[in-house]
Amino acid sequence: MSRAQDGRARATAPATHNPERVIRRRPKNRRAQIASASAAAFGSLGYHGVSLDDIAARLGISSAALYRHYPSKYALFREELLRLSAAAVTAVTLPAEVLGHDAETLFGRLAAR
């Protein structure tokens, strides 16, 4: 059999199925998972006590997979800090209908409840 024939024979041969190989798909909420794991890690160990390898291990992914989403630990920390800061501001912002009232009226309404 010539090389050309041998190559065609291999190309048409059915691919063998490897039952041990597991294909894992990236979840659509991977960034949210990373954010949650990094917030927990930074919160308990501090910025300098955590590496991207630590965060990746918490998620069961490789650090290379983590680098697909964030170029550095600082970028991840910064994004999480900005997200948490925005959530804190939203939590303490008064509704628009309250902002137009003076403090006395506001306290009167609260006391009436």
UniProtKB/TrEMBL annotation:
Keywords: DNA-binding, Transcription, Transcription regulation
The keyword Flavoprotein is assigned to this record: no
Domain HTH tetR-type: start-end pairs: 28-88
Region spans: Disordered: 1-29
Gene3D superfamilies: Tetracycline Repressor, domain 2 (1.10.357.10)
Regions recorded as binding DNA: 51-70
This protein's record includes keyword Cytoplasm: no
InterPro entries documented for this protein: Homeodomain-like_sf (IPR009057), HTH-type_TetR-like_transc_reg (IPR050109), HTH_TetR (IPR001647)
Pfam families hit by this protein: TetR_N
Protein name as annotated: Division inhibitor protein
Species lineage: Bacteria, Bacillati, Actinomycetota, Actinomycetes, Mycobacteriales
MF terms in GO: DNA-binding transcription factor activity; transcription cis-regulatory region binding
Organism the protein comes from: Nocardia africana
